[in-house]
Amino acid sequence: MYEVLAVVVCGNEVLAVVVCGNEVLAVFACGNEVLAVIACGNEVLAVVVCGNGVLAVVACGNEVLAVVVCGNEVLAVFACGNEVLAVVVCGNEVLAVVVCGNEVLAVVVCGNEVLAVVVCGNEILAVVACGNEVLAVVVYGNEVLAVVVCGNEVLAVVVRGNEVLAVVVCGNEVLAVVVCGNEVLAVVACGNEVLAVVVCGYEV
Question: SUPFAM superfamilies from the xrefs (predicted)?
Fold first, then answer.
């Protein structure tokens, strides 16, 4: 038997439906739009409703820890057990998604723009973008550790494993390039002028 823990209705709108027993733990709707559907196999500890928006749903047992909805927007969803740890949405925009288990650790979006993506397991550790511009990309495992771009200009690229450790560009001008492994260790330029090039500990 599946037990319905909570059903909340306001006017003609179903605001929350919570069921336990490896079934749907929560369904949120406002108007004709389903905001969230979450399934697991544990019990909801709390359901809080304010006005027409579900503010919080908390469950335990490596399952959904919290779901927060305000108005028509999901504000937060937390789960554990190598699953989604956090999903935050504000204004129809995903603000954060966090997952564990060598998977995506964090994805942050604001205003249709990806702000951050973090992944573990010799994969992308971080990608940050603002205004359709990539601000940072970090990869692990003898791959690119960091790439930073601002205003269509590459600000930094860092790689490990006898590869390029850093490349910095500002205003279409290379400011620094650093490489290891008996290769170019540093190249610094300002404007169109090369200020310094260092190779194997010797300045050219």
Answer: Calcium-dependent phosphotriesterase
Question: Please, where are the H alpha helices in the chain?
Answer: none
Instruction: Write the single-letter amino acid at 42.
Output: N
How far apart, in Å, are the Cα atoms of 118 and each of 97, 121, 173? Answer: 10, 10, 29
Which amino acid is residue 175, in one-letter code? Answer: L
Say which amino acid occupies 104: V
Residue 80, in any domain of the structure: yes
pLDDT band at 134 (very low <50, low <70, confident <90, very high): very low
DSSP code for 47? E
pLDDT-derived band at 145 (thresholds 50, 70, 90) equals: very low
Residue whose tokens read 């954060």: 96
Q: 145 lies in a domain?
A: no
Contacting residues for 200 by C-beta, under 8 A, at least 6 apart: 182, 183, 185
Tell me the C-alpha distance between 196 and 133, whole Å: 29
Query: Of 143, 176, 175, whose CA–CA distance to 162 is shortest?
Result: 143
Contact 53, 21 (CB under 8 A): no
- Domain span holding position 68: 1-86
Give the number of domains in the chain. Answer: 1
Measured in residues, the chain has a length of: 204
